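Pipeline run #58 for the internal structure catalog. This entry was flagged by the ingest filter as a single-chain record with no existing model, so it goes straight to prediction. Upstream metadata was stripped on purpose; only the residue string is passed forward. Reviewer on rotation: M.T. Logging verbosity set to normal.
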Amino acid sequence: MLNTTIASIDRPDTLAQQAYQAIRKAIRNGALVRNELYSEGELAKSLGISRTPVREALIELAREHLVEIVPQRGFRLREMSLAERAEVFELRQVLEGFIVDHLARRATADDVRQLRQLIDQQSQTMDDPANFLLIDEKFHLLMPQLVGLERTYDMMVTLRGALWLIGASALAVRERTPIILKEHTAIIDAIEAHDPQEAVRAIRAHIAATAQAAKMNSEPAKAA
């Protein structure tokens, strides 16, 4: 048993971690698309690194069910069945309902300020789908962070990745962006009022509307 204090060591991200983040960003922004086979070597070249860290990143992304590695050929984004898509939104209903219930009971004025600040930023990106979705993700991931729900945060990160596979563009169609802002505002209002029941109702209504938008605007998935 160690009887000394071990200081934490700050290390820069490894090349594999950098590649992992770059690929996730490309999926989120739509730079990588479904039904396209990508070369591991070409990806490594575009990132300016060797194939080894790219391969490590792809293995991790495959574990998260974001990509499918095709031996000797490359990789592609995973296809999601209709049942898996429905499961993602059902899990969001449960997890995010749990999150806002906690947050509505414990939120400070500074917590509310941070959430409203993100919505203000999002309102300025309504004609920029990539940034709109980036801030949307920050909004949903900030809430579990504010109440220290670390395991829930990790599960939320995984679900956000699944949303990108469903089709990020379907989640930010022009007709829906102003509605999303209103839905986010309603969630924050309930949190600020310390009304857990209303906060849960608002987040679940928001997720249900998002699921419907994704269903209407995404291409059909292959049956699994």
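catalog note: Residues 1-12, 219-224 have pLDDT under 50 and may be disordered.
catalog note: The longest helix spans residues 82-106.
status: ready for reviewer M.T.
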